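agent> call fold_tool(seq_1)
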Amino acid sequence: MAGEPQDDCLFCKIVAGQIPATIVRETETTVAFRDINPQAPVHILVIPKAHYENAAALAAGAPQLAADVLAATQAVADEEKLDSYRTVFNTGGGAGQTVWHAHAHVLGGRGMQWPPG
């Protein structure tokens, strides 16, 4: 069920404290932690504490929580002193989503090319 923790979800386990992560920011509704396979000098994932499969499901099911995730990405960028950065939501396997819990990638600390990927 949307919003409920999933036993087989890596990010739900991080939220529950069952799997360690390098947490850089936490609010009542979000958690931000360093990616274990960084693609930039700064690569932080920002997730809602509630489980939604992807960004589309999050936006449809909990728009205020989606806004909280976006606000947390800005706070992370500020804390990391990034004057420019990229925020990415991969939605679906074809877009590169590998963990089925909505999450934003905050990437910075180097120049970003366009188009990505």
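agent> call fold_tool(seq_2)
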Amino acid sequence: MYEDVQYEASEGIATITIDRPDVLNAFREQTILELNAAIRDAREDDGVYTIVLTGADGAFCAGADTTEMPAWDEQAKEDYAGYLWGVQNVVRQLRAASKPSIAAVAGPAVGAGCDFGLACDMRVVGPDAFFREGFVRVGLIPGDGGGWLLPRLIGESAAKQYLLTGRDIEPDDAVDLGLAVEEAEDPLAAAHDLAEELLGLPATAVQRTNDLVDSEQGFEDYCERAIEYQWDCVNDPEHHEAVAAFNENRDPEYDRDYS
């Protein structure tokens, strides 16, 4: 089904791997089509509770593979807009997913590849990882979402430093800035550990909490949404099992089908 992407759903975790290691997992149009399809599959699969996004063989994603791209300045604007919309839709889908997503970044995350990592709910980085919004270095703007995402993650002033200079965000800085939750020798294993920790919690509560964290909403909007989401949780069997397990001093047992 996939050529440029590996997709594996197992025990509640969907692992999506960008698999073009010969070009540091840089993407072509086919890659973007497959990434969108894989994320959609994970979002729609009732047996998937968390999503891990990573890249093959030590890289995350080095951005667009320029050797596979047409000369866009010789094409119609509408054609370029359609292509860019597809790239943006990877970010759009990750942000819209109720199921928590974790980026496991072992190496370069550059350009739109950086934005794919930023679009995830959390990031784990390896010692050789770095994030680079390097668009200005080649005379472009962060058209895939980075100029919107990065200020919300690390603050406007710090974000502009990286956006306007194209400097790398190294692993230590990523953790210090709150961009990454952890630095680990094996970021994919650490991301799966975090995903499994989330799997041990009531899924509706995890997903509704993920939906509720929205920096664009006002407080009253938050409160209105919280009423609806809390009602979902109150009526969720996993909530009742979690409370019973707490009262009985035991681990909860959730009735789930991961197939």
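agent> summarizing second result for user.
The longest strand covers residues 5-10. Residues 5-199 form a domain with the 2-enoyl-CoA Hydratase; Chain A, domain 1 fold (CATH 3.90.226.10).
agent> awaiting next instruction.
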